[in-house]
Specification:
Elements lengths: L1 E5 L9 E9 L8 E3 L5 E6 L4 E4 L5 E3 L3 E4 L6 E5 L3 E8 L19 E3 L6 H13 L3 H17 L6 H12 L6 H5 L6 H12 L3 H19 L5 H7 L5 H12 L3 H6 L4 H6 L2
The protein binds a DNA duplex (20 and 20 nucleotides) through α5, α6 and α8.
DNA sequence: ACGGCGCTTGTCGGACCATT
DNA sequence: AATGGTCCGACAAGCGCCGT
């Protein structure tokens, strides 16, 4: 297995978290993988064999080979059908709205082929270029040119949305929306509307995702002492509330997660 | 498009419980 | 004593709708 991340061009670094590639030979390719919401929007190009995404226990779809995966607020499962080779762009929560006119909320909880988001020919052309490129370095160049060009006719992000988002990130998802708005309570309705449109989920939901991610990082990196401690450090009211949120976003409870889950991928992604 | 009203729905603190 | 969990009421967030 070979997982690599790359830093974006400085003009894009406020919008793009990173580029990443994952390659797994068919003979090592693994069983079902649990994907946990992390607040980011990804654009991914499948360069290897198809990848399934389960829509229920025993039903699945094949993911589009050039797609955008919007905000998710519940766990889901994917499974390689053979050789895995993926190139992807990880956007910050607010990052992707700058490149498309589609409301981001329409992308939530599913994959959208890129030809639905960009002018059809340019999407096709982009996909082909990415496929033909000889290495990640070239792919990054291609995608950066594409994005930088799109940014020129941009719909830039709302200031209230950005402020709220910054506050959420800073407080690791613990600050209440009302507190963030403080004196500007008149903006509440507007914030709700714009946040959903530009980020894809409501402010509170993103806050919860961020808070859980904080806890998850603690669990994975520190090897964690006990769950109570992790809960308090991530500012959950107590361990019981932590478990409840954990289950909501991951589908399992913390102990199961630490115990028997194949955490290879999760660990990779939450450095 | 914005701000505001008010109803519905969701969240969280807190108390408490069963299992190990 | 630690852990994973339930339930409830108060309050926060979400949302349709309406006037500007």
């Amino acid at each position: 297995m070979n997982y690599q991340t790359f830093q974006p061009h400085s003009d894009l670094e406020s919008l793009v978290s990173c580029y990443w590639t994952l390659e797994i030979p068919a003979e090592y390719s693994s069983e079902r993988q649990r994907i946990i919401p992390d607040g980011c929007i990804e654009m991914a190009f499948i360069l290897g064999d198809d990848i399934k995404r389960y829509t229920s226990d025993d039903e699945f779809i094949l993911q589009p080979r050039a797609m955008v995966l919007g905000q998710t607020i519940e766990p889901f499962f994917i499974e390689p059908t053979g050789y895995v080779n993926t190139f992807a762009i990880r956007f910050y929560p607010y990052g992707f709205a700058n490149f498309v006119t589609t409301p981001i909320k329409d992308l939530a909880n599913k994959e959208t082929p890129i030809e639905f988001l960009f002018e059809k020919n340019s999407a096709k052309e982009l996909e082909q270029k990415i496929i033909d490129a000889k290495d990640s370095k070239q792919r990054i160049e291609i995608i950066e040119n594409f994005l930088l060009e799109k940014m020129n006719d941009k719909a830039t992000i709302d200031t209230i949305v950005k402020q709220t988002l910054d506050a959420l990130l800073l407080s690791k998802g613990t600050e209440s929306i009302t507190t963030i708005l403080k004196d500007d309570l008149s903006k509440r309705r507007q914030l709700e509307r714009n946040f959903k449109k530009q980020i894809g989920v409501s402010p509170k939901q993103l806050g919860k995702v961020i808070r859980l991610q904080t806890a998850l990082k603690l669990l994975l990196n520190k090897k964690s002492d006990n769950l109570t401690k992790v809960a308090y450090e991530s500012e959950y009211f107590d361990q019981a509330h932590f478990t409840k949120d954990f289950k909501e976003f991951t589908g399992i409870n913390p102990k199961e997660f630490l115990g028997n889950e194949n955490m290879a991928l999760s660990t990779l992604f939450y450095k």
